[in-house]
Amino acid sequence: MLTVRNVSKTYPGGEEALKDVSFEVSGNEIVAIIGPSGAGKSTLINCVNRLTEPTAGEIHIDDLEVTTLSKRQLRRARRDIAMIFQEYNLVERLTVMENVLSGRLGYLSTWNAFRRKFPSEDIEFARETLERVGLGGHERDRADELSGGQRQRVGIARAVIQRPKIMLADEPTSSLDPETSHAVMELLTEIAAEEDIPILINIHEVDLALEYADRIIGLTDGEIVFDGPPEVLDESAKDRIYRNGDSRDHTSDANQSDESRDADEQPTIEGQKIQRGLE
Ligand SMILES: Nc1ncnc2c1ncn2[C@@H]1O[C@H](COP(=O)(O)OP(=O)(O)OP(=O)(O)O)[C@@H](O)[C@H]1O
Q1: Which CATH number belongs to the domain containing residue 155 in this structure?
Q2: Rounded to the nearest 10 degrees, what angle do helices 120-132 and 148-160 cross at?
Q3: Which stretches of sequence are listed as region Disordered (predicted)?
Q4: Domain total of the chain
Q5: Atom 5 (ligand 1): residue with closest C-alpha?
Q6: Among 2, 10, 14, 218, which residue has the least CB neighbours within 10 Å?
């Protein structure tokens, strides 16, 4: 179970990205975080595995308080928190199999991780998982030969073989066309049920959230202004969430571009390091 308790995040420039955010996620719930651009969705996802350090509050995965862990303890705890990225974060020159296996790096000794020497059961598990996500037969393809949808499936397989307690997905469909976005969301819901773990998804496309999530958390200006099942997200709730909003956030749009910003932290690069077991 994930517990987020009174979490706030103020960036060094003074931007209050999260203000006293609290919620719990358990079972095999699919929880979609929606909200206008700049609402704090990515910050929230990144605080859960401390790619971004919260300024205040507590985050627990089951009985473990993530927020107070040392770097070394955090490395270990991150095995339990898998991450799926908008831009997939694959190592382009490596094969599909090598990318998926990197989800097990956190379980290897430093020496074996350095040599990328995986036990045969990891290799077998990776093979089965690739089959599971519809990429059987692609083990030896290079990541840069794949379509966006296939790359995201590799990202999902890499997350699955981590055997995490929770998956976080940061805009997993934003770089995909609508049809592929539906396929990826369907796959994520199946994975949550099969692995019996919750998935917390930061998503721009409200229609996808309504169709696939069990629960929706609406963020605006760093505060939770809605938390409930999709059936309850009526027009007035949407108005509350998007009151300062940005109409592009209401609909699926495969060509949405992300806003660039001055980063004091580099979640994506950090994320790559984590997935490659370097952090
Ligand atoms: N590294 C950073 N340094 C300073 N301010 C930041 C940083 N990252 C985010 N912010 C600011 O924090 C606020 C929340 O940003 P965040 O990226 O979490 O929102 P979001 O809801 O994910 O937005 P989007 O949907 O556009 O990705 C914004 O005002 C943003 O400019």
Answers
A1: 3.40.50.300
A2: 140
A3: 236-279
A4: 1
A5: 11
A6: 14
Residue 194 in tokens: 């099969």
Domain of residue 82 covers 2-275
Regarding the beta carbon of 211 and ligand 1, being less than 6 Å apart is answered no
42 CA to centre of ligand 1 in angstroms? 7
Tell me which residue has its CA closest to atom 16 in ligand 1: 40
Q: Give yes or no for residue 231 CB within 6 A of ligand 1.
A: no
Closest atom of ligand 1 relative to the 264 alpha carbon:
1
